[in-house]
Specification:
This protein is of the alpha+beta class and about 300 residues long. It has 13 helices and 10 strands. Helix 4 runs antiparallel to helix 5, helix 4 packs across helix 7 and helix 10 packs across helix 11.
Length: about 300
């Protein structure tokens, strides 16, 4: 019982006041849970998981909170059921669901689970994108090739980077608020404003770049052609990234190189450079030092 009370306090501190109890079986069992937190401007991203339980946001708890937030859950493991606004959403890995802290909701987790949860003040969405809380399609699961599910893929990537490369996570998360707003607009069937449309296009380009970053011939022109947009449009949608798409591509290649240096310590540095998408060892060394402040060899010895 004490473990659940501590967990309830921890969850409420991370989000908004919430009531947490064991799952429907009523057994406290051997409880465990975790929350990892990151903040990127107005957007907060947490990785949260636990054993089975029920989480409720009640009218009484709502009355204790002045701030209103849009919450977005992106399941990593386990399935769950969300109730809000007389709707029920069954959510599992590969999906995404929206909910609003200004109205009651309930989560039922019947098994061990883990989610990425995004939290953003509703007033920021109103000010920046003209979105009203009543327009958000709460307790509606999106998956597959839907625009919200594509955006979910982006935030799963940020969550993965958050623990191993905080700087990389912060860089990629810069357009996160615009991208989240674009996902909400797409979910309502509306037309995104230019800022939100650019965020969706940026995510489409990022997916293409990650899929092809190890190709040494990949450059700005091929990225633009592969994403069916002009160079001018490509640079516009990456306007918030210092250095533009070329700098993002370089960072992706360095991330790949770091993974290889960790997982394959016997691999020659020349092979690491080639497998990471660099045409020459010289460009690999120069880029690696620019991004990490050290050389590939020194990085490897410090692992």
């Amino acid at each position: 019982m004490e473990a659940f009370e501590r967990w309830e306090a921890q969850v409420s501190a991370a989000y908004v006041p919430l009531a947490v109890s064991p799952d429907a079986s009523g057994s406290f069992g051997s409880f465990h849970g975790h929350i990892e937190h990151g903040r990127y401007g107005d957007l907060e991203l947490t990785i949260v998981g636990s054993t089975p339980q029920e989480i409720r946001r009640t009218p009484r708890l709502i009355s204790r909170t002045e701030d209103e937030f849009l919450l977005v859950s992106i399941p990593l493991s386990g399935t769950a059921r969300l109730y809000q606004d007389e709707r029920i959403a069954e959510v599992g890995p590969g999906g995404i669901v929206f909910y609003d802290t200004s109205r009651p909701y309930r989560w039922e987790f019947g098994q061990e689970w883990e989610q990425v949860v995004l939290q953003v003040p509703l007033n920021r969405l109103r000010e920046r994108h003209g979105l009203l809380g009543t327009e958000v399609p709460t307790a509606t699961a999106f998956s597959g090739d839907s625009a919200p599910a594509v955006v979910a893929q982006f935030f799963r990537g940020i969550a993965k980077l958050q623990g191993v490369d905080p700087g990389g996570a912060a860089l990629l998360a810069e357009p996160g608020l615009d991208l989240l707003a674009a996902a909400v607009v797409a979910a309502t069937g509306g037309v995104a404003r230019e800022r939100s449309a650019d965020a969706l296009n940026r995510q489409r380009v990022l997916v293409f770049m990650r899929d092809n970053c190890t190709d040494p011939e990949l450059g700005v022109d091929r990225i633009a052609a592969g994403c069916r947009m002009s160079r001018r449009t490509l640079y516009r949608v990456f306007g918030e990234f210092e250095g533009g798409p070329g700098a993002v591509l370089r960072r992706m290649r360095i991330e790949r190189a770091c993974e290889l240096l960790r997982s394959a310590p016997q691999l020659p540095l020349s092979a690491v450079a080639s497998a990471s998408g660099f045409l020459t060892e010289r460009s690999f060394y120069r880029s690696f030092r620019t991004e990490t402040g050290t050389t590939p060899g020194t990085f490897r010895t410090l692992l």
